[in-house]
Amino acid sequence: MRHTRLTALACGALLWPGASLAQSPSPEAQDQSAEAQRQSAEAPAQTEQGADTERSAGTEPGAATGPTPPRLLQPVEPVYPESQRQSGASAQVGLILTLDDAGNVTDASVAQSGGADFDAAALEAARRLRFEPARIGERAIAAKIPFRFDFQLAAPPPPPPPPPPPPPPPVLPQPGAAEATLDVDVEGQRPPREPTRRELSGEEIVKMPGTNGDALRSVQNLPGVARPPGLDGALIVRGSSPRDSEAFIDGSFVPNVYHFGGLSSAVPSEALDHIDFYPGNFGPQYGRISGGVIDVGVKSPQKHHIGGLLQFDLIDGRILVQGPISDDTRFLLGGRRSWLDAWLGPALEGAGVEVSTAPVYYDAQALIEHDITPDTTVRLFAFGSDDRLELLLASPDAADPANGGDLLLHTGFWRIQAMADTRFGSRVRWRNMLSGGHNIEQFSTGNIDVNTSFDTIDLRSDLRAQLLPELTLNGGLDVQTGWYDVAWRIPPIDIDDGDIGGPAFGRPLTELVADGPFFRPAAYLQAELTPLPGLKLLPSVRTDYTRDTRSWTIDPRLGVRYDLYSGGLRTTLKGGVGVYHKPPEPYETIRPFGNPNTESERALQYSLGFEQELSRPIELSVEGFYKDLSDLVVASTAANTTESGIDYANQGKGRAYGAELLLRYKPEGRFFGWVAYTLSRSERRDVPGQAYTLFQYDQTHILTALGSYKLGRGWQLGARFRYVTGSPYTPYIGGVMDHDAGVYAPVESEPEYNGRLPAFHQLDVRVDKTWDFASWKLSAYLDVQNAYNRNNTEDATYNYDYSQRKQLQGLPILPVLGIRGEL
Length: 823
Description:
mainly beta; 51% strand; five-stranded mixed β-sheet
């Protein structure tokens, strides 16, 4: 069928968690090389492990001599695709294989595509490979390795050769003749520091319907994540407020992980190495939050050749270039700009809105990485994001003239980040990160003007050491400090129950200005204990100091994972319990805006669940959760005691509970997909003794079903369906005339959030076509969002006297057509 040879590559060091390894072969590897050459005469398929691997900032650059990598036992010949037989095309498919502690392939994903048909054939063959498992001493362990299949049709048999000439004199072997040398990267699975960590592969991210290939938007399809209001990029996790969850880029907190309208994230997918999502009960390395965490890692640039991409669609255009500067130094440059102003601006002007700056966003990235020694890698990374919108309305709001006339919205941030990753042998790893940056938020409409800026410095230092085979310690520092500058011009806000808070028009304005330093250091320690085979205990503690409130908090936490059966189809029990403190928002503690006596909010989180592999690509995860919230900061009217007219106190309580289900078909062969369902309820109580009411971000049912299938010949088709319970809102029962302002003020019904908007449901469809050329690849895609043009309700609006209500509709059908070229 094809003439190829088999080469199995190995090395004498194992990749530790979160790292990769490139090293010359050890004596054991050379022995395996001889065995591989013996096999090459028996097997016609050519495979290669680790021929051209790349290392991220979390890679292991040095040698480690103790562990033993996997060794290929059962080579497999992939089937050459019939659809390509006529063309006789050749292809290479690079895979990442996940091996269990028995040497079986439990998962395979495409790292270097050779085309849809070749990818499918390689993935099918990979399932039949068998390895001697990786080991630490005598203990078999799971691992990840790169692996490559080469496809080439056999040439037709040549005509019979003429009779051979007389044999030449024999040539004796020369001393020092070269032997085949081998190289491999072996990646061990990162041990979990949490009961639940959800990871997505690159293929799932790029080809996921409804997200336009955006990595961070794909997180919104996972269990526990609620749908944010229309054109809002908020992250709502397990019934928490958006401000209770945070996103980090290589350890640096970023305030706006999504661009305007949530259409794309602030860092393009092409620059990312991994995304880890923790819906709750996360480890002590994260603090100052009580919701969920998105942890984004930026990839290492290519180190063997220049690569890049250029992409344009109806939403934005992007460019990325990366490659080597020298043997030890690599670079990456990227940038993106939206096109929303090109078509949304004229549309708004046609509706009577004069546009000064239509919605537009930018982001940019510049990275350089250098190997100081084989054991130490350093990185300098600069990145930023900017969003702007400025409108001049033809007429003011009928219900509140103060809110008419103009609208300005500007958010942005930038960071300069330095990182160092050092390994001391195979058991100790020390990672350090220092970043400085600036955050800005500006909002104005009518006579309301809010300007907030922060100059920030973040420091992280994380040390991981394996002291015993059964004991690993993780400890570190997490420091946030900087300077704030805030200026508000707002009318007084009425919050007392039963008080009618009339329109802003006609009210006196309050101007508030403040600046000063903030300082929030923390330290943490976690143990990873394996007292029994398959059992992992994760006790930890974190302590934080908040200068705003001049107080310390201590957060003990415990996570547990127990593999009841790890051979074959894995069965795992998981659970966690922990304390999580969140400091008040700056405006809640800083005079003249807030109350300096306000303290941190507290959340006690519980979770319990299981994971069950139903077959090699199919896994079921079920998890229940409960969050007990106390000391919540609640605002109340204090017109005579504070300059802002508002006082804050820790008198609120809350609770959120529910269950999550994820049935996932991991990328294998031609298909990937999953069904995610969340059943939950979130409630709050602002005053002691008051009954609990629905929280404004409560969503009872959240269902997402998506899948993508490779049709062959470069075509791929996918779809996503979502159903979400409508968000709570507080209906107005009428209006009262404010004679001083000359407009009506609304009268709210009770209790708060007693109404619900209609349910949201939507179908998104994506079609991809890829053409593979000798040195580059061209793709075209059509991502149709809201394919059946559902009129989903995003909010309720009222007429001038609040006697009539109508629904505010979300986006109609939105087809996004794009083209992409890659080197």
